[in-house]
Amino acid sequence: MATWDDVRSYVRSRWPITGETEGFIAIEFSTGDGRTQMTGVRLLHEGSEPRIRLESQFAWEGDLDAVAALKLNGVLPLGAIAIDEDERLLYAYSMMLGTLDLDSIDIALRTIAVYGDKLEQQLSPADQY
Amino acid sequence: MLEALAPTQRELVLDFFATDAEAEVRTEGGLLDREGAELVARAGVLATEVWQTVSHDNPAALYANTVIGWAGLKLLTPDYWRFGRGLVQCAIAEAGDFLRDEQRLALEIAPLARFETAGDGLGDFDLARPSPIRHLILSRDEGDEEDWPLLRLTYDLERPATDEPSAIALATRALEEMPSLAYGKLFLAADGRLLYQLELLEDPSRELLPDALRKVSWVAIREGRRFAEQLHGAAS
């Protein structure tokens, strides 16, 4: 079983960290054409098992029609669009710590960053996130 | 090639699913691959015979129950048939004194005969069967050459929204629900159905796959039912 400290060590060993608070690590990915995408790894204790959520904000609630967002969820390769408690539109994917293979974070986090940026670009040419 | 199953075959396969995984097996247009369904059914027949013959405290019952769940989950390839048959043989070996010699022999020779006389002796499967859940769909994506096939379990929440305002309210509620989900995702199909979907990688460790499928199907049904209650209310 992986722990949050294992996840922190793994992430720190692979990417430069742009910020860290209790239970959250921020990483900035280069996504090509001079663009970047802010992506995070968050520890969650909801439910019976601890998990991590890989997430990338790409807009705010209201920037994208909710029905269109829910349809997009059907074609996104990993994870899904979600609205968090701060009304942010996230592209997010959860992984249970109890069964986590640390190496699987790599491709999952890159996917979240790349598609988070693609979603942002669909709404605006600006590179805000 | 997909074609409609004979009523007895279809009932049998669907009932396996209802018995253990509580779900309906569906593929394209509600049709099942005939050969695959027969293979599944044969393994299920054997397993059910073991289940009905031995004490449920016997380790054999665990193997048999696993096969029934596996059969219900319709893994339609010859490899899985061999895998299921192997599990049945484990069950027979584990059954020990609970099986008389003639019972053991009957189980050994059963697979080639029973299902080809469809309907013959299959009525016993009607015993103690809960009502099937008709909302769970299992599909299999072969993937490309580098990927392992992906199994998708999709719980159909139908069309809870009846007009545009309720559709927006429903979609917003579903998106707000997403951060709390430990597994799977909610999405809208092109035809307006709301779906809850879980994916499972069909990796090489096939001895673990039936159990993983059973757990995943259980999560899909539990969460699907929860969303059905919450989101149908949100759209009304």
Describe the structure.
In chain A, 30% of the residues lie in helices and 36% in strands. Chain A contains three helices and six strands. The mean pLDDT of chain A is 93. Chain A has a single domain (4-122), classed as Yope Regulator, Chain: A. In chain A, a hairpin with a 2-residue loop joins strand 1 and strand 2. The radius of gyration of chain A is 14 Å and the shape is globular. Chain B has helices at residues 7-21, 34-53, 59-72, 78-95, 101-109, 164-177, 209-235; strands at 2-3, 32-33, 136-141, 150-156, 185-188, 194-201. By secondary structure, chain B is an alpha+beta fold. Chain B contains seven helices and six strands; from the N terminus they run βαβααααββαββα. Classes of the chains: A alpha+beta (129), B alpha+beta (236). Chains A and B meet through helix 2, strand 5 and strand 6 of A and helix 6, strand 5 and strand 6 of B.
User: What is the beta-strand fraction of chain B?
Assistant: 5-15%
- Tally of DSSP β-strands of chain B: 6
Low-confidence stretches of chain B: 1-34, 73-84, 109-133
The strands making up the biggest β-sheet of chain B line up spatially as 3-4-6-5
Structural class computed from helices and strand pairing of chain A = alpha+beta
Measured as a percent range, the helix fraction of chain B is 40-55%
CATH class of chain A: Alpha Beta
Shape of chain A: globular
- Topology pattern of chain B, helix = H, strand = E: EHEHHHHEEHEEH
Task: Sketch the topology of chain A as an H/E string, one letter per element.
Answer: HEEEEHEEH
Number of helices of chain A: 3
Question: Which key features would you list for this structure?
Answer:
heterodimer; A: 129 residues; alpha+beta; Yope Regulator, Chain: A; 6-stranded antiparallel beta sheet; 6 strands; B: 236 residues; 2 domains; 4-stranded antiparallel beta sheet; two-stranded antiparallel sheet; 7 helices; elongated; disordered N terminus
